[in-house]
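Comment thread on ticket #2218

A.B. wrote:
> Attaching the input chain for the structure job we discussed in standup.
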Amino acid sequence: MTKYDPPVYETYLTRTPLQLLLGVGWKRIVMLRVDQDGVTLGGTPKQTALVPWQDITSVVLWRRYLRDVATLGKTHSLVPTDDWTDFVGLRRRPGAPPLPGPNSKLSAEQTAKLARHIDHDLFLASRAIRLWKLDSERLQAAVAAFSPRVPVHDERHAR
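C.D. wrote:
> Ran it. Output below, let me know if you need it in another format.
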């Protein structure tokens, strides 16, 4: 009899020489992991956050169009183009503790200017899908296996 192993989903940053220049080394950097403990939003060690299943209300795939980027501070970053960046984020229960990460210092005003269609808390609990690939089918299978009550929403085409 074989024991059933749930489908852990894990994806890594593509290795580049930039890692060596930034002092990260040549190790594999986890960008997203879904397992029995919850969802790990990865990055550098200081940006990595494990979010337990009890804090997650949904997993969201969303997109930020560059043409939607407004003014941040005194710098205009509006780019008249249809280029976009996809993100994976977590909607969390009210009162969940703040997460470390590349967005953690952004104010609600700043996140509204960067992606006006995404609420502040979701933006803070998101990672850009750059230099790594997301397999949305495997992500959905892993979430369903470990926490069937947590839906995965693909909002990349909703604006």
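A.B. wrote:
> Thanks. Noting for the ticket: The longest helix spans residues 136-146.
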